[in-house]
Q: What sequence folds into this?
């Protein structure tokens, strides 16, 4: 990735410090939502295998990625148990739903958008894991250090597939990346009423709400 891009991850803006500060005080929510993110990452990879399964190299790479994400999911569940944190149902972040609104319905643009969005989500996860390492207690910090490397690999894989598809289909990958990266960075830098792994910084309490 271009080292000039935010944090070297191909992102249009870094995660605000206020999100990291909130994360350190919301470990239980962070870990439960993180487990959901790993599950969703596996599901995204499997969905792409179904949508574009005619290419064997693509299918094999995504099958491997999906297995790795499920392994991460199992590891987060182990961490939850180790930390004595009970699983609970959480509403999804606004992040993935809003990103999906930037995805075209018609091919070949749709495939490029899906791959760019997947790469951006992996890149943001990588950036946040790396930033959390110094802010969270071990063993969470050690685990997150190992995950940062894996998610960087996933981001690059999706980005490489995006570039190859764009070249084959005559689409402008760089311009498309920039469009979606700006959408993504807006979602993680604008104040967010709900704390999640991919949320924005905490929104100030609404006027009239209890202190
Ligand atoms: Fe993962
Ligand atoms: Fe990943």
A:
């Amino acid at each position: 990735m271009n080292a000039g891009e935010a944090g070297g991850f191909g992102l249009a803006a870094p995660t605000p410090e206020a999100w990291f500060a909130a994360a350190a005080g919301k470990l239980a929510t962070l870990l439960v939502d993180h487990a959901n993110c790993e599950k969703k990452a596996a599901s995204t990879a499997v969905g792409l295998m179904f949508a574009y399964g005619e290419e064997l190299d693509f299918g094999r790479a995504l099958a491997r990625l999906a297995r790795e994400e499920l392994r991460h999911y199992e590891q987060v569940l182990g961490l939850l148990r180790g930390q004595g944190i009970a699983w609970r149902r959480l509403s999804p972040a606004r992040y993935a739903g809003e990103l999906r609104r930037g995805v075209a319905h018609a091919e070949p643009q749709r495939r490029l958008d899906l791959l760019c969005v997947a790469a951006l989500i992996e890149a943001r996860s990588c950036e946040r894991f790396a930033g959390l390492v110094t802010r969270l207690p071990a063993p969470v910090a050690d685990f997150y250090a190992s995950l940062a490397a894996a998610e960087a690999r996933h981001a690059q894989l999706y980005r490489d597939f995006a570039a190859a598809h764009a070249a084959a289909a005559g689409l402008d990958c760089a311009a498309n990346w920039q469009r979606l990266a700006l959408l993504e960075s807006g979602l993680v830098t604008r104040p967010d009423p709900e704390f999640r792994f991919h949320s924005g910084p905490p929104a100030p309490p609404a006027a009239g709400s209890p202190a």
The helical segments are 17-24, 27-51, 56-83, 94-100, 109-132, 140-169, 173-189. Residues 115 and 162 are 5 Å apart (CA to CA). The first helix runs from residue 17 to 24. The chain has a mean pLDDT of 93.
